[in-house]
């Protein structure tokens, strides 16, 4: 519940993307926020207020007048908010907010607040690129207003261009980031994620079931908390905001990328599922069926984590993962020692809803000389937060 106790005003303005406000609201509520929905009259032409009321924390307000609860809804809403999120934001609301015009309830709320404001524009490319809009956005940004950039994609008229509302998940992630503690500010971090793919021939690979979700969640949470993060990844997933991605496929490529980036990193997390074995020979073309059942000879891949452990610079925190089905504690502790790690994140992959491909996980954190910490079943972002809390604690202990 990363947004527990947070009161978020969700301002919805009149555009086709207004329907996406419903999903944004649902996701905010799921994350623990109290969502106060405010719609403009234009928005109410695109989205039924009843629908949004049902998925927010209280009924939608649209008007400055005749609110049965209070004669001054705008000041009450604005003052009590922890964040005002406008999604979607039309060119009109952006211009009105820039000018300080107070013409309806939402524009009044925007002015009658000291809370941070986050604007998620959605409009046609021509409008988004119009000098007036460009200037308004620049002025708002300079005032400290958070802008969640629109995406490029298919627009309401069927044409393609920049201006589509950012993905609801990305908008909610930006909100979460706004409230995250900044305890990793100034830290550089590299995280590996996903399973490696080792080629057999021109079309076939030896792969594994790793989705990369836990590694991506760690990278996303670390960036939200202020770290500068590089992800060395084998999977195609949406790139978390503020994270740089280096794409690799094989254990060798991952090894090279990690050896290049790790020496300058304060924290190194090997969350990837690296193949332990790869074919000795890779057939140049496609191995044909009529040639009979092939014998594929395997050889070990380099142990990337062990190599990083051998060359670990002073002060670096090195973190490994262990996927186990038996003797979790003993196996994890032996890997911690063997690979010279500071922390190992062990998960019992035989337990339900944990590990590969799931959105949830449950892990135990093992360090040297301290009792293990169990992080019970939760979404992978929450698990990531627990792992990072432990990394922060290790750094503090090392700093004395
Ligand atoms: N790892 C690595 N390079 C490899 C294999 C694993 O860097 N070639 C890393 C993984 O990213 C993970 C940790 O080592 O952080 C544990 O991986 P695991 O495969 O469980 O460890 P092994 O030492 O291979 O032990 P076992 O196969 O006996 O479980």
In short:
Helices cover 34% and strands 24% of the residues.
Features:
400 residues, Rossmann fold, five-stranded parallel β-sheet, alpha/beta, binds cytidine-5'-triphosphate
Task: Give a count of the beta strands, DSSP E runs of length 2 or more.
Answer: 19
CATH architecture call of the largest domain: 3-Layer(aba) Sandwich
User: Biggest sheet, in brief?
Assistant: 8 strands, mixed
N→C terminal distance = 32 Å
Average residue pLDDT = 94
Helical run tally: 14
**Strand residue percentage:** 15-25%
CATH topology call of the largest domain:
Rossmann fold
Assign an overall shape: elongated
Give me the Rg, rounded: 25 Å
Query: Could you name the ranges where pLDDT drops below 50 across 5 or more consecutive residues?
Result: none
CATH class identity of the largest domain? Alpha Beta
* Helix fraction bin: 25-40%
Structural class: alpha/beta
Q: Looking across the biggest beta sheet, what order are the strands in?
A: 12-11-8-13-16-17-18-19
């Amino acid at each position: 519940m990363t947004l527990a106790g947070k009161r978020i005003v969700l301002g919805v303005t009149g555009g086709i993307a207004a329907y996406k406000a419903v999903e944004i609201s649902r996701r905010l509520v799921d994350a623990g926020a109290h969502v106060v929905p405010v719609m403009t009259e234009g928005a109410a032409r695109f989205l039924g207020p009843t629908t949004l009321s049902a998925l927010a924390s209280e009924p939608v307000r649209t008007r400055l007048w005749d609110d049965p609860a209070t004669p001054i809804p705008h000041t009450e809403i604005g003052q009590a908010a922890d964040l005002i999120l406008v999604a979607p934001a039309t060119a009109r609301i952006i211009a009105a907010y820039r000018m300080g015009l107070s013409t309806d309830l939402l524009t009044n709320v925007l002015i009658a607040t000291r809370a941070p404001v986050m604007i998620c524009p959605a409009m046609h490319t021509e409008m988004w690129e119009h000098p007036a809009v460009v200037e308004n956005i620049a002025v708002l940004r300079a005032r400290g207003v958070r802008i969640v950039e629109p995406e490029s994609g298919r627009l309401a008229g069927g044409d393609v261009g920049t201006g589509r509302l950012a993905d609801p998940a990305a908008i909610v992630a930006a909100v979460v980031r706004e409230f995250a503690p900044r305890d990793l500010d100034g830290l550089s971090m590299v995280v590996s994620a996903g399973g490696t793919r080792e080629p057999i021939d021109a079309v076939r690979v030896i792969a594994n079931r790793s989705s990369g979700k836990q590694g991506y969640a760690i990278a996303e949470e670390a960036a939200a908390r202020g770290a500068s993060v590089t992800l060395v990844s084998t999977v195609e997933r949406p790139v978390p905001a503020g994270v740089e991605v280096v794409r690799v496929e094989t254990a060798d490529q991952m090894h090279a990328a990690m050896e290049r980036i790790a020496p300058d990193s304060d924290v190194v997390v090997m969350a990837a599922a690296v193949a332990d074995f790869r074919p000795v020979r890779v057939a140049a073309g496609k191995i044909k069926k009529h040639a009979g059942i092939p014998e594929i000879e395997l050889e070990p891949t380099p142990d990337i984590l062990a190599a990083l452990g051998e060359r670990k610079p002073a002060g670096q925190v090195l973190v490994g993962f262990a996927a186990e089905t038996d003797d979790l504690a003993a196996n994890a502790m032996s890997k911690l020692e063997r690979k010279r790690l500071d922390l190992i994140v062990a998960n019992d992959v035989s337990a339900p809803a944990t590990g590969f491909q799931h959105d949830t996980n449950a892990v135990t954190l093992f360090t040297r000389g301290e009792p293990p910490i169990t992080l019970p079943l939760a979404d992978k972002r929450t698990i990531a937060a627990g792992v990072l809390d432990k990394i922060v604690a290790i750094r503090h202990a090392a700093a004395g």
